[in-house]
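Lab notebook: predicted structure, single chain.

Context: the supervisor wants predicted structures on file for every construct in the current expression panel, including those that have not yet been purified. This is the next one on the list. No modifications to the sequence; it matches the entry in the shared construct table.
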Amino acid sequence: MGLAISVKSKIPDARAVVRKKKLEKEGFSGKIDSLEIVEVYSLDVDVGVNGQLFQEPSQLEMLHTVIMNPVTQKSDEVSMQPPERFDWAIEIGYLPSVTDNVAATVKEGLEDLFKVGIGGEQRVYTAQISFVSGSLSREDAVRVGESLANPLIQNITVKSYEEFVKNPLPEIPRVRLHGSRKVDLVDLLNTGDEELTVIGKEGIANSDGSRRGPLALDLTYMKAIQAHFRDKGRNPTDVEVEALAQTWSEHCKHTIFADPLDEIVEGLYEKFIKGATKRIRAQRRDDDFCVSVFTDNSGAIMFDERHLVTHKVETHNSPSALDPFGGAITGIVGVNRDALGFGLGAKPIINTYGFCFGNPDDLEPIYKDAERKKRMLPPRRMLEGVVDGVKVGGNCSGIPTPQGFVYFDERYKGKPLVFVGTVGLIPRESAGRPSQMKAAQPGDYVVMVGGRVGQDGIHGATFSSEALSHGSPASAVQIGDPITQKKMSDALVKEARALGLYSSITDNGAGGLSCSVAEMAKESGGCLVELDKVPLKYPGLQPWQIWISESQERMTLAVPQEKWKEFHDLMKRRGVESAIIGEFTDSERCVVQYKEETVMDVDMNFLHEGLPQRSMKAKYTEIIHEKPLIPQLEDLTSSLHAMLSRPNIASFAFISEQYDHEVQGGSVLKPLQGRGRVNGDATVTRPVLDSKKGVVLSQGIFPSYSDIYTQDMAGAAIDTAIRNALAVGARLERIALLDNFCWCSSNEPERLGQLKEAARGCYEYAVAYGTPFISGKDSMFNDFNGFDNEGKPIKISIPPTLLISSLGIVDDIEKVVSLDAKSPGDLVYLIGNPLYEWMGGSEYFAMVGEATRGKRYIGNKTAQISVEKNKEVYTAFSECIEESIVASAQSVHRGGMIVALAKTAMGGKLGMEVSLRDVPGEYQRDDYSLYSETPGRLVVTVHPRHRQRFGRIMGANFYVPIGQILPHTNFRVFGRGGEKVVDTDVEEMLKSYRLRFEDY
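Prediction complete. Output recorded below exactly as produced.
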């Protein structure tokens, strides 16, 4: 027996207005007369007097206070509160087993209110009904439902007025798992190569002939597993095969970066990424500020005498392609756990993001299947869902999200890139121990803390290790619950860590328990796990599912037996579930049992080191692109406005304004800067409120350069990430880097050749600048294999993409510099390299090509980095900031000098007059001079009284005065010949800058 309570707004509902407008833009203009939204809470629980369900009026009244706000809403336990007349009721609810965060919160509220436990088969469920009136057919109503929901995780029910009157109650998505729990043997001993290949690609066969889902193991790996168990004289269990697939996945082991490639026998990671850091640290000696690199969930550097800061950036591309909201929220709360899993647990203090999408105006459908039934979401839906997911994950977790970027290219249509990062703060000592040190000890309990295990997240790691296709499993998608994780995080880092109640900790991310427990077991030498002791969301899960599920909000800890009671009592008081699920041993084996039956017994060395290396061959072929023939324009005003409204340049304040960056109280330099609220390239946060030290975050990313030469792409990304941080006040010697490689078709020699050159570029430029890599991640198969609108096979591969993130430290936040012009009369300087003929991959070439021929120009010459010259410039510039000489600074990168100048003027809402006459370089064309993305340059404003000091400090380093800030809002640029080439107004520029995403 249950109860359904409807909640409806009794004031004008802004959600309904926005939804109606959204639907009108999606093809329903003129068809919808009215739209009302009602939330429904279905309580399948038995709480009340003598077990009766809310029989007392006072209980019902109390119940309503949990669910609705009486000031703005009204609720009813009898009616669904439909309008008097409507044509269609479109109900959206979650599918069985999908995480419903709102329902979980209501359930917890009921438990608190009535002082009871709700467990077993009792559940709370939510649904939303849109009552629509208008000239809509049933097919139209179904399309409305499809535009509001994601069928991968949600159920859509469409009822006419008559159908709703007969059956108004929403469907309850109870989980029903049938069949006995058993462990299957996988016959590998008598299996040929063909079947091994099928198992590795599609998964273990079920009794009905279907497959469980991708293992992402190629024939080489499958034969290694086969040979191992032949030596043991037995077939493996399904638990063992699934566990090996998770542990050996590209997602977890990064095999393409680790395996020999041509002459690089140690692999790209060891040679170029880890090798760069090793060399830099050796050169720095006593000045080395790295503390932990490449060995833990995050990298860490020294912040001050008492604290370390950690940083990790992850990708969540494949899940976000299927369910943007779920993929993104899971990504952000997952990388929060990377901070929590560093050392003995770092407190997450800052979130970062980066989104690469297809053209948001592209509505041309693509499909996962030839029958065109499984349509991929269009880029705009992906964008909106991802933005929302990161927002909910960060805002509900109480973690500020100040820093991020967006980038658009049509090749991200099939598979977007979703970067999410977290900075953590950890004391250098905790409970008398160095906080970065952790080690599970033999005899420690294996303890799972946080959320329970469900079917969500099955094959997440293996699914993310291959291209997106019709075989990509829906079960791989999870939905994160930030509230549960927040409680767990606070209980661990604010209390349990300081009490010394555990000896090691890591998160349950990719591979779930199978990876977290087995990784920690390397510290002790082995483990024994009892799967029937793992807390489950619902009964009926198979042992292999329990072991590899990636259900969220969980950490695995090693808790000394004598400290278990104190730990367990603390977690219980904080509303955090904890359970002993095994014991760490020194047996050198990973042993897993289910109801006293051994379902996995694998040698630790084989589990972690047994995957065979595969020697790879790379091929690099230079591609010569069509030379752009672009006529010189005399009036560049219109091109400036067009540039400012391009997706890759325009304001993304619609994201920044949704993300809370003030929580925790440490925000110094905001994501939107100046009176004009312009998106900055870097932000600054004060993590320790009684200190003046700050954390600087920025990034560099140039996917368009990979169309010409990936080593130059790496150089531009590194130089820009560094320069962006320097522009706000970081110093070169206190900047660390993170690398995130997102590649495509990485089993093809040509793509491996591009990867090799990019990795080489990372080594060369990081070493040259002395900026070590402290953490990184790669994602190797960002391809979409599907079908177009005519059912023809298509493959969409992302451009090879490298994100470089920078983490810097400033000693005095009061000296931080923002991008906005400050005062009329301030002098405008261009500092850095002269201009060279490097327009290849530029935003200007892309803009002109799209305008004149419908597709972008690429060009053939990308930006070259002059590191030694840049270092001289950067060092002198940092001294100017230290001396409080610089009024504003803006790095020159995408869009060139004119965009940097425009952002400076728009940020301050002050005019500017600039002349190109004295700007040195090869260009005589004014448009190329303005739009060149030549690296190593900054636009700086300086008060006239500091002119001489600025010149004295900059010395022989290149700097040139190019203009002045005006007391009004005119924005004028004079060309090399003295003629006026840009004549506009800052307010008009701001309109163009905000135009692109104004309806988002």
